[in-house]
Amino acid sequence: MHMMDKKSPGSNNPHDMPRPLIYKGRGAISNHSGRFEKLQHTDADDGWDNPEQDLAPIATEVLIDNTRSIINWNNSPDVPFDRSINPYRGCEHGCIYCFARPSHTYLGLSAGLDFESRILIKPDAAKLLRKELSNKHYHCMPIAMGTNTDPYQPLEKQQQITRQVLQVLAEFQHPVSIVTKSAMVERDIDILAEMASAGLAQVFISVTTLSNKLSRSLEPRAAAPQRRLETIRRLHEAGIPTGVMTAPIIPVLTDLELEKILTAAHEAGATNAGYVLLRLPLEVAPLFEEWLMHHYPLKANHVMSIIRQSRDGKNNQADFHERMRGTGLFAHMIRQRFSLMTKKLGLNKRSLEMNTALFKPPERPEQLGLF
User: Fold this and answer.
1) Is 118:58 a contact under the CB 8 Å cutoff?
2) Is the pTM of this model over 0.85?
3) Which residue has the higher pLDDT, 357 or 53?
4) Counting C-beta atoms within 10 Å of the first and last residue's C-beta, which end of the chain has fewer, N or C?
5) CB-based burial, 50-76: b 16+ in 10 Å, e otherwise
6) Hey, what's the torsion of the CAs at 45, 48, 53, 56, to 10 degrees?
7) Neighbours of 167 (CB within 10 A)
8) Helix axes 189-196, 161-172, angle to 10 degrees
């Protein structure tokens, strides 16, 4: 472990850089400190390990998030919801491209390996949700889950926080929209199918690539691509409105799969589709470039060149209306291809409207009068 002042200059010679430490089952290669930390911590290979082999797995550390509220609010014009629930902070799936990685730096943790191995759970999520939905001033609109970190990441199997949240939403007859890349959502078909019959639930499965090899390094602990397609099929057969998110679209690595992914998802039962062009905010950019140089060194410069062409010469655009889709010729081509293919397949013919009219908080006891 090396420690240095962030202001200290580093070497630009790749031959002087330490060999990366590759941990089995993890997406990030490094664990650099976040932008708010005074010191930079860097792991380096001491030469005793075989650089051709993965290191032993890093155990996941579970931390408690003692949040006092569970509904997150936003006014972004880029997303079709104004509220969301995230039962977890950090995500074991380890997707190297995850735009939520920088959120860990607010906790004094790294957006790298910490983000995927030091997970904060919200055990009181269902209790907090019940309280917030019972507020007499609460106005019902669909709640989104999976907007920041995946509600069905591996820890959910033991914690069951997402399932508890769904049970509360079902009790209140409150609509919910879920995005996940996990097959674990099938566990909750019993709740989701009943809610869907009343227009209260919909699920989007995120499919980044159909290549198992690419998926294993890109999103190491997420469900395999074919398994996600099977999840779409099972949700559809259960009567749950299901869509596919081709997200993120990565230039050179996955963009050529766009039509194949949409076709496969449509054949599995998806009725709607969306996409997001790769976003690289803050710490995500160096983490992604590091991953590229290790796994796809011959394509790295090409990938980053197109990303910058699509982001006004930068690694990322934070502006509304542009951050999800990008600008320039490549971004325009993706929009055209997506539009043509969804039209050809009959996707997005109708919007998945959610029913807010059934929302019913539990009855509050009337205040007793004075005798």
Assistant:
1) no
2) yes
3) 357
4) C
5) eeeeeeeebebeeeebeeeebeeeeee
6) -80
7) 16
8) 30
Q: If you ran DSSP here, which 8-state letter would residue 116 be given?
A: H
DSSP 81: -
Is the CA virtual torsion 263, 265, 269, 274 positive or negative?
negative
Does the pLDDT value for residue 329 go beyond 50? yes
Alpha helical stretches, state H, 173-313: 189-196, 212-218, 225-237, 258-268, 284-295, 300-309
155, 186 Cβ separation under 8 angstroms: no
Which tokens is 181 given?
């890349």
Q: Are 116 and 91 in contact (CB under 8 A)?
A: yes
Q: b/e map of 340-367 (b: 16 or more CB within 10 Å)?
A: ebbeebebbeeebebbeeebebeeeeee
State whether the Cα torsion 215-113-159-359 is positive or negative: negative
Q: What is the pLDDT of residue 163?
A: 98
State residue 364's pLDDT score: 62
Closest CA relative to residue 118, chosen from 108, 126, 127? 108
Is the pLDDT at 334 greater than 80, yes or no? Answer: yes
Within 8 A by CB and 6+ apart from 344, the residues are none
C-alpha closest to that of 94 among 37, 183, 21, 24: 24
Cβ partners under 8 Å of residue 166, min gap 6: 176, 188, 191, 192, 195
